[in-house]
Specification:
Helix content: over 70%
Largest sheet: none
Number of strands: 0
Order of helices and strands: HHH
Radius of gyration: 17 Å
Structural class: mainly alpha
Length: 96
């Protein structure tokens, strides 16, 4: 017999937390890594965001929609990191 959830936890906060983590990682990689190594370190950072997304969604304890929430967190993290790395790439083109 299944027990209905009386007060389901909100899951959007966990997805946004992974996006914020991705932004912090992308900014740190853009500032502290050499331009030749930025793409490699962004890949490592995205892997860390994948692990963080799994951990956050497992912590919520809800099975329904688990895959969709993890996918939303990782896809959003990839987009956030892409936009920030685009900004660093465009900044590298400006002489000075």
């Amino acid at each position: 017999m299944a027990v209905p959830e009386l007060a389901p936890r909100r899951t959007f906060g966990g997805i946004v937390a992974v996006w914020v983590l991705a932004a912090l990682i992308a900014i740190a990689v853009g500032i502290f890594s050499a331009p030749d190594w930025r793409a490699a370190w962004l890949g490592v950072g995205l892997g860390g965001c994948l692990i963080a997304a799994f951990a956050v969604q497992l912590w919520t304890g809800r099975a329904a929609g688990f895959t969709e929430r993890v996918a939303a967190g990782v896809l959003g993290a990839a987009l956030v990191m892409g936009v920030i790395s685009l900004g660093f790439g465009l900044a590298a083109l400006v002489p000075g």
